[in-house]
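okkk here we go again. third time trying to get the adenosine-5'-diphosphate bound version out, last two times i messed up the smiles copy paste (missing a bracket lol). double checked this time i swear
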Amino acid sequence: MPGENVQVAVRVRPFNQREKNANSKCILKMDRGSTTITNPHTGENKTFTFDHSYWSHDGFVEKDSVLIPDSANSIYADQRMVFNQLGRQVLDNAWEGYNSTLFAYGQTGSGKSYSMLGYGANKGIVPIACGELFKAIDGADKSNGKQMQVTFSMLEIYNENVRDLLASNKGSTHGGLKVRQDRNQSFYVPDLRNLPCENYGAIERLMKEGAINRTTASTNMNATSSRSHMVITIKFKQVFNNASGESTTKTSEINLVDLAGSERAKSTGATGDRLKEGSAINVSLLTLGSVIEALAENNPKKTVPYRESVLTKLLKSALGGNSKTVMIAALSPADINFEETLSTLRYADRAKKIQNKAVINLSPTEKLIQDLKSENARLLQLLAQHGTGASVNKDASQGFPSSADLELLIAQNERQMKETMMTWDQKLEEAKKEWQLEHVSASDKMFLEHPYFQNVNEDPQLSGVIKKCILEGVTVVGKCTSIQQSKKACIALRGLGIQEHHANIICNKNRIIAEPLKSNDVFINGSKITTRTALKHGDRIKMGSNSLFLFIGFPNERKKESAQELTSKCDYAFFQNELAASLGINYEFKTKQKDNSQASLARAYNDYVMLMPEVAQVNAISQELQKNITFQIFVLNLASHDSAGQEKEKEVAVKVVQNITQQVWIWSKAKFINRNYLIEELYQAFLDDPKHVDSLAKEDDPFWDPVEDIYIGCSHVWLHSLAYRMPLEDQIVILSHSGVEEGQMQVTISPCTPNGVVQGDDVMILDPNQLLGGRLDIFIQIHQCVGLQWIKQNNTRGILIKFKFYNERYGHQTRMVWHVVNPRMNFQKHIAIDCVDQDFLDYLHTNAIVMEVWGLQGGRQSISNITLDDGVIRASSPAITVSPPSTAASNSSTELEALERELEIARNNIEKLSEEKKELKELCRVLTKENTNLKSRGKTEKKGKNGVVPGNDIQAELGRALKRHFVDVRPVQNQLQNLARNDVPPEPRRSNNGLVNKDSYNDLRRYAETCQSEIGKISSGLDGAVKTLKESVAASVRAKKNESKVNGTR
Ligand SMILES: Nc1ncnc2c1ncn2[C@@H]1O[C@H](COP(=O)(O)OP(=O)(O)O)[C@@H](O)[C@H]1O
Ligand SMILES: [Mg+2]
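finally!!
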């Protein structure tokens, strides 16, 4: 029988709010079955073809909350259309007795759940299919005693553990449910609840219960749903008498799989972390990729790695087996998701090559029971062979089951036999009884009459699934392990950072008040509250590190804005933006045009908001594990690092502080994300066994890192005066990444002779072009740092300074100095530019040396083999050979090594030098001769007032003017740079009711005034400097004119 390929559909969703805010561009186009993606960086197109390409990006309107095409020409694919083309065939297959599988693949937020489950009135394939199935059952001909039975199960795979989503009250099974292989070699989960359903309502209830269990999952951690796979299985059984009157059973299994976000399938790569990447890599998803790849290759010699993950075991028959399979690849339209979307398209492209061989599952009912019986007999015999005490604990899947395993298998078989023989009506009756026992909870009517809390989850699919009524009196919020027993009204939370008795919610007639207990974290509308605070309809509440709720007030308060309107407005992103805003982090595009700096700011803002809950989570875990480590997000301003001061890039990073030793680490975003996964894993292990944390070696501890040097800030030493061979001496502010003053630094940069003798103003030139083609020697001195905050805060610390000049690869560094707030650096370095070219001149005109100050901390490991530059800037085609110049005075051991290396090079060059010396001597002889000639000529010319040649006098004057100009302009340049750093306006202060208080407006006004006055200073500084320069030049020109008049009249 020929196989049948996996059918593949792709679907693109509309922009979400965040993408709209960032002015995202759509990078996908669809034309019938083909989908084209455009690389936003290069404009390159790539086209794929699939069985279906669904355009759900635009061209729709909302009617009675349902999204439908906005016109007859619209190509918008709505939920109905997707169901008709994909879901309907799954149902048809089920009637015929084929197994079907439908799975959704794509990155988090791409629309997997929307297609599979749907939202509100926009029902997805699963609910529509279930509804249609029961409609068909109701309408089917049952005249010949035909029976149709539907059962439903729902499981989640998280971290390779299987959890039954319909078994909340059965206690969580340590390590999850077991996956076993049956006699037909297919995998299944024996202990999974498989509940009979008599109508669509029953399925709806179960799906709701599954969602609640998924939300309150035992892990308590953020974003677990994006890392877990959900598998819904509907078993459809038809029992009827065949033509010869024999009872026959036709079965079909429908698997509906909502996969974890595809971004979890691969390594993020460049974290640069010493620890391996954490559960960023989802084993099941990664293996699914390998299985698909192996199947697409269709090489009979290659084994397909089904056994390597739980998911692929369970999907074995869906992939390359007895199933008709459909894959929906969900796509994000936005340019920022290009890489992930392209990778999803490639994945889908491979999947379409997979071939399955589905068969109709039809057999006499009696045979099914017979099979089970004979299987049981075989197992019993095996067990007897084992004998008592002779249990061999081998893997069941390898065909060597242990006694315990055999006993389990027998018990399961017996249960299955009992089930097969039990009448359907009996099963339904049992399920109903159980349901009533478990669900005596609040009816929906209560929520119409009383105020309530409603959960908000990062996964929109899991928002609003938990509702807690607030009744008259005091409701306790917290872990409530002991309170629950005392039967007080309580809202039991299991989130991180939630205390046993966290807060009270007090309902007094028609007033609701929130009361935080001790200093527990309770935030209302983004701000932490410390005293009793009244709650209003629509308030956003955060407790602990990330337990979020929307407060729905009394019925009369809901008239202005209904609970439904609030729910769709106040999603997870809304909460996070509000929390960020209350920290003074705010971002909005002012214009439609997006330039690079805006894009970078938008990225940094998104990263900030994304990391916020994760940082709150690690802080809570750190506290619970008593790690004494605090995490804090901040924005790096890369402008401060750029030698031209023009870089607008911004980046977020996380500052990690050991509270006792005050040691500091800076983690990049990628490193933080990786560590966050590892910390979550560690916490999970701690919950399973608290001793695990104690026995952890420090090298394996995701909280631990060796002490490292911390970038504190830098000073910009502008170089343009060097283009005039003029020395510069300055005391410059050391500014941190966020523009805070960290201290000051005294620096001198002077021209010098090739032997390193510092030269003064006398070698100044008026036209920088004179430098072109010649050699330039400069001498850099860092004398002292003053007022170092880093040391003031903790005097066990030290610093060193690093910098690079022009195109140097390694740069230079000073010695290390410890414990001193105003340390003498005593650093000097002679740098020689062998042949000045235009590029180098441009560099001098527009760039600064960025002197980076690095903080040293106790426990620092000494780093040997530091490579430093030798101080020669070589032109691409050197005009002359330049020996390495004299080296800096230094007393640190690493620098000693560098010195030795330089000495070595120096020795090698001595020979060359003595050669040059000879040539130079000759040159000198010639020059002296010429000079004498010139002097004798000069004596015959008329001398100026001071005995100086008039031309030289003017030159000196102009030189002085220029020098003064540079001195005038330097502070202006620093001020300008400061302003360009976009320092942040003051945080709004809020009163208890969460409103911005009046003082805040005054803060802002003062801030605006400061900015204004700073700009004023800059502009008057600049005016002054230019005016002085103009006057000096004019004076010189006048002097020159007078001079020539005098000369002319004479
Ligand atoms: N085809 C679509 N039409 C309209 N909205 C969609 C569509 N697909 C996804 N969305 C919206 O995008 C958001 C993320 O979709 P979701 O299905 O939850 O993503 P995933 O399950 O892949 O993480 C949801 O708010 C959802 O309503
Ligand atoms: Mg989802």
